[in-house]
Amino acid sequence: MPQISLPLFRNGHLQYPIFASEGVPSEDEDEDDRQVAGHAGTLIFCDDGTLLKKVGDEEVAFYSSLEKHSSLSPFLPQFHGIEYIEGETWVHLQDLTAGMLKPSILDIKMGSKTYNRSTAAEKVERCKQKDQASTTASLGLRLSGMKKFDRQEEEYLKMGRDECKSLDEEGLVEALKGFFHDGVSLRQELVLDVLKRVQEIKFWFSQNEKLRFTASSLLLVYDSSLCSGEARAVCSMIDMAHVEEIVESDGESRDEGYLLGLGHLQEYLEGLL
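Below the sequence we write its predicted structure tokens.
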């Protein structure tokens, strides 16, 4: 079991600690904040290269049945089991930023809609409106959050959820390009790393007739402290809270929304080479 800590109270609010390499809460939250999207307080970064993510029943069900979908495992962070802490459920996963001194992180929300069969009827219309207002409905993807270390300015540049949601296709492509530009040069070798993985995931989805992923993300990570030729980029599927089986009534035999997003992402990455 990794070393963990109880929640901390800071400024009157309950927060979960993010661990530094010594296994104690980091004093510099901005520098060590590796969560660029999602709800605050849902991750605990541990000192052994893993993390704990607080989850609900649907995500527990997905990881509990992962052995039935073993071909998907190479595209996910390594799964180390389910933990129960103070009455809450956490999945124990690989920390994709482990060992990185200056991790640059991009969260891309995949799929052409953010609702599924289990979404409450009164919420579906709101989801449709939000999807239409962003690039989700038209492109099958939108940026959800970004944090990039600029080697020239020697500081982190961040893009939050609201700014990401406001991007049109042109803005999304420019932001993607900006993520791979470290302030000195465009890191095309990192683009190639991600492109290769996107092509592999796209092939998996082209064969997949069982699962549909809603509000799931691709997480892109690389260490900005390393020079060209030293760093490798990671691209992994995360956020499995809304995975459901494809049924005949869906009218589709594959997850067409996710495939739409992968096709556009592949196109944008190829455009950076």
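The two ends are 43 Å apart (CA to CA).
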